[in-house]
Amino acid sequence: MARLRLDPTRQQALSVSVATGAYGLSFGALSVAAGLDVWQTMALSLLVFSGGSQFAFVGVLGAGGSAAAAVATSTFLGVRNGFYGVALADVLRPVRGIRLAWGAQVTIDESTAVALAQPHDDPEARRAGFWWTGVGVFVLWNAITVLGALLGERIGDPADWGLDAAAGAAFLGLVWPRLASRRAQAVAGISAVVALALTPVLPAGVPILVAALVGVLAGWRPSAPTEVPE
Length: 230
Hints:
One of its GO terms (biological process) is L-valine transmembrane transport. By secondary structure, this protein is mainly alpha-helical.
């Protein structure tokens, strides 16, 4: 019986898809525990489809924050996906129409990372990395989210199972691989300290927004001045 053999790019894409999709179990359970029903949880994964933004949304709701704070926090974290489109412009060309809209939906941390990890002079490998990862994560994330939501309806208080801390742990798991440089680690540390310091004095969700703003300011670097030839 012949065995299906995948090239390294597709193997990497599938590995990332399985690892990321597994977090959907925690998200589904936490979403129901935060007050959303199964259908709302499914819609959030299908339409938002950004793990960090989704965990932030249900985390704010679960902590007693307002819907406005939850949406603002989720949106702030989701803005980064728009910047990925700039880096992926050459990868997605000449995609148009429905395929372009689908590409925009699956432009996430993982699909961007796998695509850009391929050799710059191999556009086919970059496209394969993007599409296999993006679609793979989308399918597994949404399928496992449903399982988590159904599980969440039956387990009762999530604190009894340790799921009250799962949002933070899962979010850290998604963010940790991006903290490869000392600068990124320093910015993350500063933002975490700010969020922890403000948590006792500000409404739920607001410390995250302030910490995100501080992170943006701390991580910003002015462009080097361009020399004008004489």
